[in-house]
Amino acid sequence: MPFIKSNVHTHTAFCDGKDSVEDMALAAIAAGFDTLGFSFHSYTPFDTSYCIRDYPAYIRELTRVKQTYADRISILGGVELDLFGERPPHSDFVIGSVHYLKEGENFYPVDESPQKLKRVIDGVYSGDPYAAVRAFYAQVATLPRAIAPDIYGHFDLITVFNKGGAFFDEWDARYISAALSAADCLPKGAVVEVNLGRLFKGTGGIYPSPWLVRELVARGCRFMLSSDAHCTQALGYMFDEVCRKLNSLGVKSLVRYHGAALEEVEL
User: Fold this and answer.
1) Would you call 194 helix, strand, or coil by DSSP?
2) CA dist., res. 101 & res. 93, Å (int)
3) Are 177 and 137 in contact (CB under 8 A)?
4) Which of 5, 164, 184, 246 has CA atoms 20 to 30 A from the CA of 60?
């Protein structure tokens, strides 16, 4: 049973996840969770490939599962609200995320594929990856005023395909400056998720990167552990190991949802 028994970054087959709402709930119960939050991708009219497909049906199924398993787990209905997505009429919590680079009237996904990202860097940013980095973090910096989310999602998603410095050097002053400029825009006490989605896939480490976690600690941010689960197997993956890693980075406590209430848990 994991030390942190809650995950609120959870996707299902209603958007780009693989499993049903009920299967995700049963997996969370089996893993010893007391709280599970669902966070469908908000509707983005310019890109419907991954976002919510049938909101009324989703709400009906979420309500049914919540009622069916109410004596075994608390189910929350949230949203992963993209900076350019549509806010739903109601949500128990909001994860604010940036998935696109916006230039003019065009939107370019940063996490679709390495090939797509390379085409964007070459075609839109004249081959300058640090221009793309600056554009990404400039948009992250707007999240507090544009969305005011409860949780800041995968803060440095621009590194999704950058394993081994494939696109840019994360120790380059240009990258560090752009990332810290966005970090400086977060409100005091902001809840930043520690996202394990890439770790589960085996394609990289946590978001934010360890050095950035240290910088966010210094800026008074709080942290929430997140599976960013798109399948049942991802729920709670390496939660305990990452808790130990975070403690070594100066994180003394995590926040989590226990039912609808936000609570602090010392590491």
Assistant:
1) strand
2) 24
3) no
4) 5
